[in-house]
């Protein structure tokens, strides 16, 4: 094992929550500045931000529910308790909700572009919290940039359950830091959008491009992410995870939408 392997032996959950709050405040400040720069209606924009954030949080939770959890929820028995989160669930629900909000609040398509650079950056920044907490971890690796975790973390627990750890072995085996891969991907996506946005014609298409690029990079990162690290979507179907099939579908459909809107756009 290489001596360069990075060992995480810290209060990961504490730093996860701290980074989560920081990213929320960073995103709120960014969007308020974007709203002022783009001259959005201030009340409508703040309301749209608040509702969208609520839908994002709800989506990250709802998409972790099992069929049994959904049955309990729909029958009105209880709101199932879950500590897991699914990023794409949050993006899906908030994205659908924002489309309707935009119409109700009479915001134009350019409001979507306010998220185009922020979204990949925010996702990447939050993955630093995931790295410290051990969630969303990668598969075992012997590469020099592998990451080891202490007991009572998900990587250690999953490896113990899989019988990969020797009796008395304190730290887990090194795993791919897939969270850092997503951080790099987020920065790259944001940089690409910044470079090409002046050439994008229809309002809203910069945001579509950001989702396409993020989904594209995330598809390949998933090959290095442990299936056990998924709250949902980690099951293999035809040698690919369900999440990868979702990412492929998202990349393909939104790429077609992006091209169609670019070709058919007629300036007002």
Major β-sheet strand ordering: 1-2
- Summarize the amount of helix as a percent range: 55-70%
Q: What string, H for helix and E for strand, traces the elements in order?
A: EHHHHHHEHHHEEH
Strand content: under 5%
Average predicted confidence as pLDDT:
88
Q: Regarding quaternary structure, how should these chains be classified?
A: single chain
Low-confidence stretches: none
Distance between the termini: 62 Å
Structural class: mainly alpha
Count of extended strands: 4
Radius of gyration, whole Å: 20 Å
State the helix count.
Answer: 10
Largest sheet: 2 strands, parallel
Overall morphology: globular
Number of domains: 1
Describe this structure as you would to a colleague.
The structure is a single chain. This protein is mainly α and 268 residues long. It has one domain (6-40, 107-264). The chain has 10 helices and 4 strands; from the N terminus they run βααααααβαααββα. It has helices at 12-37, 42-62, 67-74, 87-104, 110-113, 118-133, 154-161, 178-196, 205-221, 242-264; strands at residues 6-8, 147-149, 236-237, 240-241. A two-stranded parallel sheet has the order 1-2. A two-stranded antiparallel sheet has the order 3-4. A hairpin with a 2-residue loop joins strand 3 and strand 4. Helix 1 runs antiparallel to helix 6 (118-133). The radius of gyration is 20 Å and the shape is globular. The termini are far apart.
Layout of SSEs?
Blueprint lengths: L5 E3 L3 H26 L4 H21 L4 H8 L12 H18 L5 H4 L4 H16 L13 E3 L4 H8 L16 H19 L8 H17 L14 E2 L2 E2 H23 L4
Parallel strand pairs: 1-2
Antiparallel strand pairs: 3-4
Helix pairs in contact: 1-2, 1-6, 2-4, 6-8, 8-9, 9-10
